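Q: Here's a chain of 298 amino acids. Please give me its 3D structure as tokens.
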Amino acid sequence: MAIHVSKLDRLDLKQLRVFQALIQEQNASKAANQLGLTQQAVSEHLKKLRDVFDDRLFLRKTNGFVPTPFAEDLSIGVDKLLNDFTALLSPTSFDPKTITGTFVIAATDYAQQVVLPSLISLLREQSPKLKLIVRDFELDKIHELMESGKVNLAIAFPDYIPDNYPIVKLFEEHHVCVASPKASIALKNPSLAEIARYPSIIASPSRPNFKGSIDDWFKTFGLKRNVVVSAPCFSIVPMYLDTTDSIAFLPSRAITDLDLIEINLEQSPDNFDVIAAWHPRYNEDALQKWVISLLQVE
């Protein structure tokens, strides 16, 4: 949407900051508190923004605002502009040792086990003043959380991330079929059909149900798994395997040094990627770029 020069003259930095706060908070009162303004001032700035961009930008809902599609697209450009302005006032060199504030990482249960220990170690060593929050990955809320700036980095699987988000591939992973050494299947060399019939435990961290990514793979062989337990996270599954005569398909890096045996399969499930993702507005953010550089990319 083109902006006439005379309208551009009426646009100032404070209005853009109000727009950014409204995108993040989606509530005029919270945006006002964030900026140290009155609600009336926020409303006045919003009125001017609507005139400049010839769009309502935000529509009222029960407890606040919801951005229009145009406002959602505009937010990426506004964030970049504000980041560029901030960079003009910031030191030209980035020194991790002096960085303060909080960095929030949303990670799957698997990523918390396999990826984060080494990343957190590096961050604590190289940026001791930076505080970290690790939160569970919420599939249904991840776009909202990253759009609002409440999550800086997500570590998960590609299917969990919005299509327009920048990503970096960390490594390839694959599932292995495992059981306790005490399981009756440990003494056999089972066929894939026998594996499908055997009691199985799955990890379903995003939604509690009896379906997992391996189900589609079994379907290609005309088989259906006998899933008897659905657990909320990968880390608890080995404990359940120890107390039940059952099997599970777990990512290979999540079972290192555990008292489990691998069941040999006639065929193996496809490999999958583990990735890190962030909101496009942080593409040029120095802290964001530095944290991503610390990730172990294979």
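Q: Can you summarize the key feature?
A: The chain is about 40% helix and 20% strand.
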